[in-house]
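Per-record layout

source: Alicyclobacillus hesperidum
name: Flagellin
length: 308
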Amino acid sequence: MRVTPWMEQQQFLYNITNIDNAMQNTQEQLSTGKTLNKASDNPLAVSEDMDLASEVQETSGYLSTISTGLTWMNNTSTALQSMISQLQEVQSDVVQALNSTNMSAGGQQGLADTVSQLIQGIYQTADQRQGNNYIFGGQASQTQPSTYLKKSPSDSPAPVPSGANAEINYQIASGVSVSITVTASDIFLSAPSSGVSNLQDTLNNIQADLSAGNESGLQQDLNDLNANLTQVINLNADLGSRIQRLTTAQNQLQQYSTNLTNEKGGIEGADMAQVITQFTTDQTVYTAALQMGAQILLPSLVNYLPNS
């Protein structure tokens, strides 16, 4: 078969186009640092890469949820610890009142005032917020807990709102939820056991009995307070176990996310040393092809003039 100049030109253009396309692909890999820049680069690898990206995104969402939950729970634990310290001071003052048989009326009233201030501090702690939400409000987190708690014997609180005793649960993995809350209802309105007053009633009884000098009443109040204090300590301990669980889940998810990201990078990431070498080779081939084409395919009119 006779090879014509036109056939040589077409073959040259075809080859030079392929080399140019290869250079463009290599240049795109250099600029993005990725081997997968469009679906046609490697459909199977692109599909796997998209699946990994979806998993990374889901894991990132769970990590964000856990971080928010841990902030809430750590703030709650700090507030509970403050309550426990204040309750221990009230406990100490009640013991002092019981052991001071010859206390003057002024001293007795001073002790009653001191205990009253401590109790108001406990309720102030119950009103702590994270952002615009009351951390002890349960699902009624927009309502200030002290508004529906009886803070003194003469107080007239509002009705307990719907959801105030309901927990807030955060999903930390597929099908796994953890409560992040301790509610004011758990602390103040739930009796530790049958026959024992809840903390709200105990604190009100202490205030009334201290003011009245009711020693036998104070003894019962002290017994109730001991049980109430143990209950609050147990609530804080239970919260601590949930904090530990979320922290463990957070560490595991962070490691899993790192593994996914590394795997995703291995699929889509370009070997820059290899890409640079390939680009240099492509440039050399492209330049040589252009030079050869200039010599073969672009003859001058001088070639067709007679020798005479």
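summary: The mean pLDDT is 83. The domain at 52-264 is CATH 1.20.1330.10 (f41 fragment of flagellin, N-terminal domain).
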